[in-house]
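hey can u check if this looks right to u? its 103 residues, i copy pasted from the old doc so theres a chance i mangled smth
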Amino acid sequence: MDPTTPVLVTPQGSVTPRPPDNGKHYGLDELQGMVGGPIEILRLFGRNSDLIMVVNEEGNRRLQRGREGGMYRLPHNAIASQAFGLRGFILGTVLVCPSHRIR
């Protein structure tokens, strides 16, 4: 697979090519739908890399206190965690793509 091909990586280990709906760029609503909520963008492989990982904003924490005070857990994403290296423990479904695909 071409390393510039956007892929969706699930906690179950599925890695699927996922181009933008319009064929060019992802919009906020599309990104939020893929990761299941508000997004956070993580740069992969250092500052000079164009490759990013879009995660649920709670997807780089082990536990997050919910609005009603209860605890919930997103499933661990071993593939995404390994790709992000020692800097992160990634939870939930993520999109890995070149940064120029985000608008």
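The chain has one domain: 7-101.
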